[in-house]
Amino acid sequence: MKTAEPSLPAWVEEANRRLRARTPLPPPGGPRRAPEVGDLCLAEPADRGAAEPAIVCVVEVDDGLAVVRAALASPDTDLACDTHLLAPAAETGLPFDLMISSHLTGSLWWFQVARRIGRLDAARAAWLREACRSGPGALPVGAGGLPVTAPRDPRRELEAGDRARLAALTSACERALAGGLRALPLVVDPLLLIGLPGGSDGARAARLAAVAGELTTAARSLVPGRAAAAVVEAFETSGGRLDPDLWQALRPCLEQALAAPLAAGTAVEFEPPRAPGAAWAEDALAESCAALLAGGARSVRLLTAPQAWSGGQPGEPAAAVARRGAAALQLIRHTLEVSP
Amino acid sequence: MTLDELVDEYRRVGIGPRILGQVREIVRAVARGYDPAVYAGCASWDDGLDDLVQEFGLEVLVGQGQLDYAMLVATDHQHFRRLLARQVRYLLARRRRRTIVDNLIDRAHRLANAPPFRLIGDRSHWCYTLLGKDVEPGRVSDAAARTVAARLAEVPTIRAEPALRAPVVYSEASLRTILAEVAAAAPCAVAAGDLDRVFGLLLTSWLPSFLKEAEATVANAPAHGLDAEELAIVEETTMAILNGCSDAHRQVLRLKIEGLSDDGVAGALGLSRPTVSKRKQEAMARLEPGLAGLAPELRLAVLDRLGVQLGASEGGTREDS
Predict the structure, then answer these.
(1) Measured between CB atoms, which of A24, A52, A149 is closest to B154?
(2) A41-71, pLDDT tens digit by residue?
(3) Last residue of a domain, one of B208, B238, B258
(4) Considering CB atoms only, which of B75, B90, B205 is closest to A76?
(5) B14 CB-near residues (< 8 Å, 6+ apart)
(6) What is the CA radius of gyration of chain B?
């Protein structure tokens, strides 16, 4: 930081000196890692611009669904009531104090809380988690604000506004979660069908059989259309030993792929990036993600393999993200297990 | 002005001319809706505005980290201004609470000088306890202050007129009860600073009340259906447009807002039609950047406000071409 221009009033110089002395907030775009209980994050709407971001504190993490349960936080600590846990700046590493609501919680996809800005200390994280579960009585005396006792306490109205603010961020995830993990569409990574490097025909046949097994148990499945043609090719080269279940699952995709021209403008960015591979496979996955996004999906399961992705840093979340414009699709990565 | 420009300045220097300009505009616009006698202790905001800007900059934006917060969550320039406007309102509400708490502490000092209390120390460094109670050295902890305040939350209060600068809040009996409870709960003598924290907490529910009262005083709120932040935006946009216009442009703008044709404006001002057309274009060039990015209802409100301001400032002078 440079110093302010000399024409500014003297107090601005003092303000900037204090700004330079504090620990700045972590910038966006830090390393990807799975959220943890106690994380303080900037929650973004599922579709960028659809709602105002807000600070939340993670109180539960579901690795299977790649969602968190998070409590709404606000810097307006003067208005805290006994349902709020107070988190002073000195304890969180943030430049502002927070009050975290133990009774305004909601579910968010991991990609919505990817920007972590601080952490609660272990004791406060445990108090908050307990208060979210069993009520504000679980907060130690003196850790929260003053109770709302009067029926006309204006803080009741402020709470209604906070509730609406949180709902705008969580509603997409809450709706999608209603059916649980199995209700989420299962997308097959096209690379599983043919594109993985190495492996004998036998290994490929075993892999395809495993894919078939997953497809037959999924409530909703999607094999990217362009991949179908490649599988047919594999079917032919393997001497027609393709699993009949897989063929049954692939046939509609193939018909669809043959009947409709490829969609144009399906530019999708993956986080983490995909490993270099066959262009047709990337196009096929991008096309499917774009179609799912257009249909309103924001989270799906993706049957995939570690080799299909770059990165693989320790602590990296199991869920990848496909972004197209302002919209994001969470890909809950399930590694295909092949019986030897 | 875009949010990116403000973020860039914030990252390079902290508060620079752009952010300071925004702060001044927003503070001026928000303060306009509050009585300067109640919220600044002066007759006019002309005398109290610089102090308010400085207090807001040093105590709120930097001291309380609200500039960092606004830079973190703002999605665009208007959102940034709304966040700052909200914090200005909170600051004004806290100023009012400060006045009330100071008043309560003065009354507490008088009460503590008589049984059942024992006053210790001199006027500038006083503390008190209960008669006959042995006290330890030290201060009342934050947690203890919160605990005792929570117990006292239901002590009855006296609601006051919004225009009253420092309402009494507690009757003498209620205040005596509070002092006794705090002294009984504290292992140490209770200092004025300890009472300050307890009273501040006890007035938690008053803070939003002050905000609501002040909102009700902001002119035209019911007519436009806009909240205080939106009215602040309307006010500051209007002033920015007016400050960017020459007298000649203002005259043209006023008559166009009144619905006159270019010929009508030319006739009213005694100018040629091409001159009016040229000035209209120049005036529009000053109007459009101010309106860009505003929601339609805010644009209409700005035009309404411009009409009012231009009408009020119209001196009836004509200009020769």
Answers:
(1) A149
(2) 999 998 888 899 999 999 999 988 899 999 9
(3) B208
(4) B90
(5) A1, A4, A15, A16, A19, A20, B67
(6) 26
Per the listing, tokens 């309560």 go with B104
In whole angstroms, give the CA distance from residue B52 to residue A50. 35
Are B16 and A79 a contacting pair at CB < 8 A? Answer: no
B127: which strand partners?
A: B120, B191
Spatial distance between the Cα atoms of B140 and B119, rounded to a whole number of angstroms: 16
- The whole-model pTM stands at 0.75
Do B65 and A14 make contact, defined as CB atoms within 8 angstroms? no
Provide the β-strand partners of residue A62: A67
- Distance, CA of B300 to CA of B260 (rounded, Å): 18
* Same domain as B225, residue B204: no
Categorize the per-residue pLDDT at A34 as very low, low, confident or very high, splitting at 50, 70 and 90. Answer: confident
Q: Where are the alpha helices (DSSP H) in A220-278?
A: 225-237, 244-259
pLDDT at A35 over 70: yes
- Contact in structure between B171 and B120 (CB atoms under 8 Å): no
Tokens 């024992």 sit at which residue?
B118
Rounded CA gap, A125 and A91, in Å?
Answer: 11
Q: Which positions in chain B touch A11 (Cβ < 8 Å)?
A: 54, 57-58
CB nearest to A142's CB, from B72, B143, B204: B143
pLDDT digits (tens, 9 = 90+) for A112-165: 999 999 999 999 999 999 999 998 888 887 788 888 877 777 787 788 889 999
Helices (H), B136-272: 142-151, 172-185, 192-202, 206-217, 221-224, 228-244, 247-257, 262-269
Phi, psi (rounded to 5 degrees) for B138: 125, -175
**pLDDT higher than 70, residue B38:** yes
Predicted ipTM of the assembly = 0.83
Range of the domain at A212: 181-335
Question: Into how many domains does chain B fold?
Answer: 3
Read off the pLDDT of residues A238-252 as tens digits, 9 standing for 90 and up. 555 556 666 666 666
Q: How far is B68 from chain A (nearest CA, A)?
A: 7
Q: Looking at residues A210-230, what average pLDDT do you find?
A: 74
Q: Is B150 in contact with A76 (Cβ distance < 8 A)?
A: no
Residue A10 maps to a domain: no
Residues 6+ apart with CB under 8 A from A339: A206, A210
Least confident of A274-283, B21-30, B202-211: B202-211
Beta bridge partners of A72: A56
Residue B20 forms contact with A (CB below 8 Å): yes
Segments forming the whole domain that contains residue B238: 221-313
Write the CA distances from A229 to A253, A254, A265, B90, integer angstroms. 9, 6, 21, 63
Q: Which of A148, A170, A192 is the last residue of a domain?
A: A170
Contact criterion met (CB < 8 Å) for A20 and B66: no
> What pLDDT score was predicted for residue B122?
81
Q: Which residues of A touch B209 (CB under 8 A)?
A: 154
Residue A100 in tokens: 């975290």
Is the peptide bond prior to A272 cis by the omega test (within 30 degrees of 0)?
yes
Q: Strands of A186-188's sheet, edge to edge?
A: A221-222, A186-188, A299-304, A327-335, A319-324, A269-271
Q: Which residues of A touch B67 (CB under 8 A)?
A: 19
- Cβ of B211 within 8 Å of Cβ of A154? The answer is yes
Same domain, residue pair A190 and A136: no
Q: What pLDDT, on the 0 to 100 scale, is given for residue B1?
A: 78
